[in-house]
Protein: Lysosomal Pro-X carboxypeptidase
Amino acid sequence: MSSIQILLSVFFLIIFSSCLPTTQYKIPKLGAFQKNIHRTEPQTSSKSSSKDLVMFYYTQTLDHFNYKPESYTTFRQRYVIDFRYWGGANTSAPIFVFFGAEEDLDDDLDAIGFLSDNAPHFKALLIYIEHRYYGKSIPFGSRKEALKNAETLGYLNSAQAMADYAAVIMHLKKKYSAKNSPVIVIGGSYGGMLTSWFRLKYPHIALGALASSAPILYFDDIAPQEGYYSIVTKDFKETSESCYNTIRKSWGEIEKIASKPNGLSILSKKFKTCFPLNRTFELEDFLDSIYFEAAQYDYPPEFPVSIVCGGINKASAARTDILDRILAVVVAYMGNRSCYDMNEFNYPDAIYEWRWQTCSEIVMPIGHESNSMFPPAPFNLNDYIKDCKSLFGVLPQPHWITTYYGGHDIKLILQRFGSNIIFSNGLRDPYSSGGVLNNISYSIVAVSTVNGSHCLDIQRASPSDPHWLVMQRKIEVKIIEGWISKYYTDLLEVKDQTPF
Structure:
């Protein structure tokens, strides 16, 4: 990272930190996978060799929905193609398109394996498209200019992003004479929401969609506001009752210590914070982030929730007090460090862009319930609006997602209107509380696993994968096979008919 990038990151972190919500906790970032930026253990990677991937840039239109002169401004949108397995346009071999979401496309190429793992079977062309405003797909010439104010950020939304994907796909189908190659769009988390909405909005472009861990129902009042944290609580309670009880009691203990003279100094020393605590929120938010990240990305074989609870239970056996047990959580999850930065979970480069998206249209009302292992903190829309107005000078549109894409009465509407969407979920994923968990029709189907976690099914396959995960992926492949087979049958029938 260059010195300019570092300065920009620090600048936006300062802005973001100074405008943190006045309510107790932030909305968890979606993210298709855990980036492992917090853990100290060495990580293994089976990413594709760079020689197999060819990078391109598409001259993308800034505004697809307006015709003012400034709407025709363009920017360079990055996409990557893997040609290794494609059977070619002459055979109408399929095209798998991965929708990048709120991160750098390079991160997706390292982690997402569903496309490359299954491409040989389908003889598919693989395309990975980066989301506007993330990675290297930055309008206005630089990240600094793109994030300057609400006017420049106003072009960052889901509808513009999907129109980008449509333009790139159509361009490539024409470029490679692949008019009859069926397109399957694949995405996880926010990217999974985009793929499901894309199939509904652009059925003439995408034959089908795999939407992994896509909480499309976590808007308005469709899913319970406490759903996310109730599953985090369930994951910990099922893993260890004593671990759950320790965490539940720890919040009161933190507040008790903080109320003493020099209480924040005591907590700062106890938890080895890199900078003195100014308020208990900083520590509580840091711990909250550890718990929800461990639950959301509770991947085998490490199972982070077990790592967290292992730290607590080991400290409990040594008869330590509650806060020593919680410190053991930090050490077990983050590694043994000289100090711990309470802002560590707020450092990812894309946090400012994602905060804009959640302050404009992606308003997910997530709160803590009173009987979870967290202190009560219900979602307060008025406070949320106030925070977003302070940060960006705009008012969130909490009902826009369901107005534009739907969501209410989803089975009644989509069973006759939609088709060819797989909603896959792992039920240990807190965001599954806002996911589609039941079949909507014969071709809009839910594929769930009891032990699965966030977007696990689209991660790279490994010999150590449990049987239930292997079977989940096989079911998804079988469904996609059916879509493509039916498409080829329909294609032959159309070719045999007299043209209009």
Summary: The longest strand covers residues 74-82. The chain has two domains: 53-220+403-496, 226-397.
